[in-house]
What does this fold into?
Amino acid sequence: MHENFSLKPYNTFGVDAKARYFSEVHSTEELIEALNNSLTQTLPLLFLGGGSNILLTKDFEGLAIKLNLKGIHEDFISDNEVLVIAKSGENWHEFVMFCLDRNYGGLENLSLIPGNVGTSPMQNIGAYGTEIKDTFVSCTVLNLENLQLESFNLEQCRFGYRDSIFKQEGKGKYVILDVAFKLTRKNHHIKTEYGAIQSELEHLGIEKPTIQDVSRAVINIRQSKLPDPKEIGNAGSFFKNPTIPLPQFEILKENFPQIPGYTNGDFVKVPAGWLIEQCGWKGKQTGNVASHQLQALVIINATGMATGQEIFDFSTEIIHSVNEKFGIELEREVNII
It folds into this structure.
């Protein structure tokens, strides 16, 4: 166990916050051993995966545990279905590539999303018309109250838009150890209708795309407009796309005819990036922090020297300006520590 340990390499914003204590675990047994340590009875705990969905606004006065559990297991269900179980410490994109190398379909639209497998159910991560819940079967968790293993199925996880039981009443009560997905082996369901996938496939000259082609298109799109956290500190999309009642959207449409929206029953999802851009934030920099020049939804550590508090304050200004102009309150997607 390390003391006064810098977490800068363990968060994709590259914020230099310190943990009072730090430990890295490689197995469930090591994790339980660390949690049984007398120190952890009184200290707050912070579990670190890929570090792509947290903002450290100050030093952490507790024990930070880096979950480095690795391993992927395949279990063939039928000619067309396979159960793939990945440990929580597996890098998400590398896991997607592992599946595509074996021609397992279902996760290709989620290519190049930062982070690790273990945090994917917490957020119900999604992109280009696909979410984790579409292929999720179950996850194994450690109950932090009694240090017993439990299993959560699809229904028990109560997935919503960028939401799950692990962000609600289960927050801070469980650690996800592995996640199981049911994927296709032959009869793949190709999704190309969302975002710019279809036009990117046309640009690549592909008429009958495979799951590998869809992944390639998604990677091209993401790389063209999203900054690489290895090169410039960021956590991907900082805000959720807000969902507002249809009557509210219709009023906004009268005042802002260009406003995009995706109707779902009596509600409309509005792209947060568009709202932020209309308020003049795209590419704007304040001190060490900026909104990315190609995607206003992404806040970046522009100089590499930003503190977490600076980034948080910058996001607060964005929230205020969008609320003032459109009457919509943006919600942070990133976990604030």
Observations:
- The longest strand covers residues 174-184.
- Residues 289 and 311 are 6 Å apart (CA to CA).
- The mean pLDDT is 93.
